[in-house]
Amino acid sequence: MGLQSRRVGNEWDLLLHLQRSNPSILQAVNRNSSPEVDAFLLVLLRTGGIVSQNGREILVYSHEAKISFPRFFPSVPLEARLAVPVFHPNVDPVSGFVCLWNRFAPGDTVIEAVCRLQRVISWKLLNLDQDQVIQPRAVVWYEDPNRAQPLPLAFEALVWPDECGLEHESRIASSARRRRLEPIGR
User: Fold this and answer.
1) DSSP alpha helices (H): ranges in 24-167?
2) Quick count: other Cβ atoms within 10 Å of Cβ 133?
3) Whole domain around residue 103: which residue ranges?
4) Considering the entire predicted model, what is its pTM?
5) Number of domains into which the chain is organized
6) Which of 2, 86, 83 lies closest to 38 in space, CA to CA?
7) Which of 138, 56, 92 minimizes the C-alpha distance to 184?
8) Whose CA is closest to 67, among 44, 41, 99?
9) CATH number for the domain including 102?
């Protein structure tokens, strides 16, 4: 078993710990492996996000996602995709790719990725740098002073597993300092 296989196995264990700490918010559905990519399928619940349905934007609270570990992980970052893309500047409206970070470290874990994913879906995190914007229409909507929808959207924050030894909010704060995706209302 190689380094990447062991690391991805450890990441699956971390995801299961996160699920046990948050059974009403997170469901780890499946783990898939191939020579090119390992992926975890999951569902985030109690997390407000805006999706397009029948030409209208609606608020939904359940999101299917895939966290992928590319072939050269951890030298390259893990990636997130939503089965149904949300309306957000940093989410591709076609593929569902979510820009979680523009700088990464080999020590970034699936727990950080899932917590950041939840905050992106709910508009708690966004990056308005031109290089990171995938949905320009979402930026226009966000900057509209007459926007009726208050942000961030409602969500029940994931709690870090006890065995991580760090409080959830302090971990997110330290993670936010390392990356340019910023919380709304800083």
Assistant:
1) 110-121, 136-143
2) 17
3) 3-183
4) 0.87
5) 1
6) 2
7) 138
8) 41
9) 3.10.110.10
Cβ(17)–Cβ(161) under 8 Å?
A: yes
The gap from C-alpha 109 to its chain's centroid, in whole angstroms, comes to 12
User: Nearest Cα to 171, choosing from 160, 186, 182?
Assistant: 160
Q: Which residue has the higher pLDDT, 177 or 89?
A: 89
Mean pLDDT (whole number) for 84-101: 97
Q: Which of 111, 119, 54 is nearest to 90 (CA)?
A: 119
**Beta strands in the chain, from DSSP E residues, in sequence order:** 26-33, 37-53, 56-70, 79-82, 97-98, 125-126, 182-183
Q: What single DSSP character describes residue 163?
A: G
Q: CB-side exposure of 136: number of CA atoms within 13 Å?
A: 2
Residue 58 above 90 pLDDT?
yes
Nearest to 123 by CA among 155, 167, 169: 155
Structure tokens of 55? Answer: 């030409």
177: amino acid identity, one letter: R
Reported for 72-77, long-range contacts at CB under 8 A and 24+ positions apart, including other chains, are: 72/4, 73/4, 73/7, 73/8, 73/38, 74/4, 74/7, 74/106, 74/107, 74/108, 75/106, 77/101, 77/104, 77/108
In angstroms, the CA 95 to CA 68 distance is 14
